[in-house]
């Protein structure tokens, strides 16, 4: 009788551990999902790091290059120089 009880207890413990391994916190499927989230976040971090690098380059250009300031003013703000004329071309399509 004690041997049957010990075997039953051991089977119960193994079943509990298997349940935790596959369904509980820290389970294999949950670990896989977390791994996928880490990969996705790493790609996003790389994209943002590249964007930050580009923006830092633009900042340095604006700090040290007057032509860069003028280019941004023309492109984004519509700046027109003193001796320049503005022409608006309208493309009329039927």
Architecture blueprint of SSEs:
Blueprint: H1 2-23, H2 28-64, H3 66-77
Please provide a written account of the structure:
By secondary structure, the chain is mostly helical. The chain has 3 helices and no strands. Helix 2 packs across helix 3. The radius of gyration is 33 Å and the shape is rod-shaped. The chain starts with a helix and ends in a 17-residue tail after the last helix.
Supply database-style keywords.
3 helices, 0% strand, 94 residues, mainly alpha
What count of helical segments does DSSP give?
3
Order of helices and strands: HHH
Main beta sheet strand tally, sense and closure: none
Principal-axes shape call: rod-shaped
- Which structural category do the helix and sheet elements fall into? mainly alpha
Q: Terminal Cα separation, in Å?
A: 95 Å
Helical amount: over 70%
Mean pLDDT: 89
Tell me what portion of residues adopts beta-strand conformation.
under 5%
Structural domain tally = 1
Q: C-alpha Rg, in Å?
A: 33 Å
Question: How many DSSP E strands?
Answer: 0
**Uncertain residue segments:** none
Please provide a brief summary of the model.
With 94 residues, the chain is mainly alpha-helical.
